[in-house]
Amino acid sequence: MKADAVFEGGGTRGIAFVGAIEAMEEEKVEWQRLAGTSAGAVIAALLASGYKSYEIRKHLSELDFSKLRGRTIMNRIPIIGSLLELMFNLGIYKNEYLETWVDSLLSKKGIQTFADLPDGKLKIIASDVTNGQMLILPDDLVRYRLTLADLKVSTAVMMSASIPFFYRPVIWKSKDLYNSYILDGGLLSNFPIWIFDTDNPRFPTFGFRFVKDKVNINAVIPTPLHLFKNIFKTMLQAHDLRHLNEETKERTIQIPTGDINSTDFNLNEDEIDFLYKSGYTSTKEFLSKWDFEQYKVKRMQRAKKEYKKKTPFYKE
After folding, report:
1. What pLDDT does 91 receive?
2. Is beta strand 91-93 parallel, antiparallel or unpaired with respect to 30-37?
3. How far is Cα 275 from Cα 164, in angstroms, rounded to an integer?
4. What is the C-alpha radius of gyration for the chain, rounded to an integer number of angstroms?
5. How far does Cα 262 stand from its chain's mean position?
6. Better pLDDT: 212 or 254
7. What are the DSSP calls for the chain, one per residue?
8. pLDDT value for 41
9. Measured between alpha carbons, how far is residue 169 from residues 53, 157, 182, 279 in Å?
10. Angular region, 258: left φ>0, alpha ψ -120 to 50, beta rest
11. What pLDDT score was predicted for residue 244?
12. Contact (CB, 8 A) for 96 and 109
């Protein structure tokens, strides 16, 4: 079965995607186009370059997650050091370790820039906070007078995964010689399930996203910090909630991640195994009920219903 895939951002929870991919591979799914944000961009990039689930799992097992929190000498100073990093560098930690790690893996497959990939194979979401615009890479390179060969895939992944304030923004100099500050794609679309949509799809676009086991509907916001965190979470979700309708949910694998957060860089073996198995079992359960032809029929029925609502004089 041919299919496109879109992976949500979610930091270290992205380990669960590897289990999901293995389940898809067992069903002989052939990926056509791939897209993702943050951790989802990492997985999408590796798949686009030809990696299989067992290879990704092996490399993740060798990854030093603690180095993803790129500490500097200033970070060693309790509290004040982090505040100084925020003040002077606009982020507490560096994110170069992720870029280097991804680049080393892609290089083994002969991939460096987007020019090394088939046209349209990979799309990565980032946020240009200087210009207030979503970036779909490599599509939007033309806005910066850049070519496919001007941007390394690993750099685009780092851009997409640069969590605001946690990581320093990526300062990107275009050929017009002005700087753009690029941050996490999740600011504008953490789950770009819409990216490959067409009126008459030849094959499905599967979404992969995380769900919390419990939602605290009575969350207390006692301090300005708590308020900021909740505003930020709301902002991350606002754009994508518009696209999470019934049709989208029918083609999305929902992966429970317990109480594991995106910046939990000290996961133990049990937590890693839990994420992997959660991705695998959730996907197996989804595929046992999936029927693309039935999905297309429902999709057409919903579209017709919506059209009738908007057209008062519609006749059968």
Report:
1. 81
2. unpaired
3. 25
4. 20
5. 11
6. 254
7. -EEEEEE---GGGGHHHHHHHHHHHHTT-EEEEEEEETHHHHHHHHHHTT--HHHHHHHHHH--GGGGSB--TGGGSTTHHHHHHHHHHSEEEB-HHHHHHHHHHHHHTT--BGGGSPTTSEEEEEEETTTTEEEEETGGGGGGT--GGGSBHHHHHHHHT--BEEEPPEEEE-TTS-EEEEEEGGGT-SS-TTTT--SS-SS-EEEEEEE-S---TT----SHHHHHHHHHHHHHHHHHHTT-SHHHHHTEEEEE-TT--TT-----HHHHHHHHHHHHHHHHHHHHH--HHHHHHHHHHHHHHHHHHH-TT---
8. 97
9. 30, 13, 6, 30
10. left
11. 63
12. no
Decide: 274 and 177 in contact? Cβ < 8 Å.
no
Question: Once rounded to an integer, what is the mean pLDDT over residues 144-157?
Answer: 95
> Mean pLDDT for the chain?
86
Sign of CA dihedral 117, 121, 126, 132: positive
Tokens linked to 162: 């640069």
Least confident span in 21-30, 173-182, 272-281:
173-182
Cis peptide upstream of residue 256 (ω within 30 degrees of 0): no
The b/e string for 132-171 (b: 16+ C-beta within 10 A; e otherwise) is eebbbbbeebeebebeeebbbbbbbbbbbbbbbbbbbbbe
Lookup: tokens for 265: 């860089």
Catalytic residues: 38, 184
Rounded Cα gap, residues 216 and 60, in angstroms? 31
Global pTM value: 0.88
Residue type (1 letter), 229 = K
Where does the pLDDT of residue 217 fall: very low under 50, low under 70, confident under 90, or very high at 90 and above? very low
51-107 residue pLDDT tens: 999 999 999 988 887 787 767 667 677 777 778 777 777 788 888 889 999 999 999
Cβ atoms 71, 93 nearer than 8 A: yes
**pLDDT score of 78:** 72
